[in-house]
Design goal:
With 107 residues, chain A is mainly beta. Chain A contains no helices and eleven strands. In chain A, the strands form two sheets. In chain A, strands 2, 4, 5, 6, 9, 10 and 11 form a seven-stranded mixed β-sheet that branches. Chain A has a four-stranded antiparallel β-sheet with strand order 1-3-8-7, with no helix packed on it. Chain B has 122 residues and is mainly beta. In chain B, strands 2, 4, 5, 6, 9, 10 and 11 form a seven-stranded mixed β-sheet that branches. The chains are: A mainly beta (107), B mainly beta (122). Chains A and B meet through strand 5 and strand 10 of A and strand 5, strand 9 and strand 10 of B.
Chain lengths: 107, 122
């Protein structure tokens, strides 16, 4: 099974900051990676798919990059509504797996 | 409205059974595969099972093989998860999701339900 390791697991930042979260795959997954945002009590929300394609309706301050085994999601100009937990997920092959999550909190 | 609505969760004793349902609306159900994903505070998000559009192909995470069965009724635009021989570690929020966003050979899960909570405890 492909393991996804996210870092950091916790991030404290201020409104207006630029933050980057990394997701590393245990083997190459091409660009078959998605990023989700989850807020307490809510389902995950798709932000980015195919490593770098912004889902419709997602603000342009979110961006994704990477291929192979290393991927990042960057939030530029962090907004109050961006404080949440972020997960990566690969779709290279079954079983699909998720990263452990990165919790972004207000400093 | 485009949505997925899960139901059927609850408290069940170890060794017991539960059947989860997910009703889809607002999109062409038969165009997409369907997925169950679960989430626990300790283990995070875990893909549980997948079923293709006509129900002929089913895939499971190893930990539920032989105990859980995914199925769908396209006439009722509904997805199901029959869970037998439940264990403490099956306690989780269970989400149904469907991958409708397509790019370069893969479909990505862009629609999720709100989840239904399953608690396995004596």
């Amino acid at each position: 099974d492909i393991q996804l390791t996210q870092s950091p697991s916790f991030l404290s930042a201020s409104v207006g900051d630029r933050v980057t979260i990394t997701c590393r795959a245990s083997q190459g997954i091409s660009s078959y990676l998605a990023w989700f945002q989850q807020k307490p009590g809510k389902a995950p929300k798709l932000l980015i798919y195919a490593a770098s394609t912004l889902q419709s309706g997602v603000p342009s301050r979110f961006s994704g990059s990477g291929s192979g085994t290393e991927f990042t999601v960057t939030i530029s100009n962090l907004q109050p509504e961006d404080f949440a937990t972020y997960f990566c997920q690969h779709l290279n092959s079954f079983p699909l797996t998720f990263g452990g999550g990165t919790r972004v909190e207000i400093k | 409205e485009v949505q997925l609505v899960e139901s059927g969760g609850g408290l069940v004793q170890p060794g017991g059974s539960l059947r989860l349902s997910c009703v889809a609306s607002g999109f062409t159900f038969t165009d997409y595969s369907m997925t169950w994903v679960r989430q626990t505070p300790g283990k995070g998000l875990e893909w549980v099972a997948n079923i293709n559009r006509d129900g002929s192909e089913k895939l499971y995470v190893d930990s539920v093989k032989g105990r859980f069965t995914i199925s769908r009724d396209n006439a009722k635009t509904s997805l199901y998860l029959q869970m037998n021989s439940l264990r403490d570690e099956d306690t989780a929020m269970y989400y149904c999701a469907t991958p409708r966003s397509y790019l370069s050979g893969r479909y990505y899960h862009d629609l999720w339900g709100r989840g239904t909570l399953v608690t396995v405890s004596s």
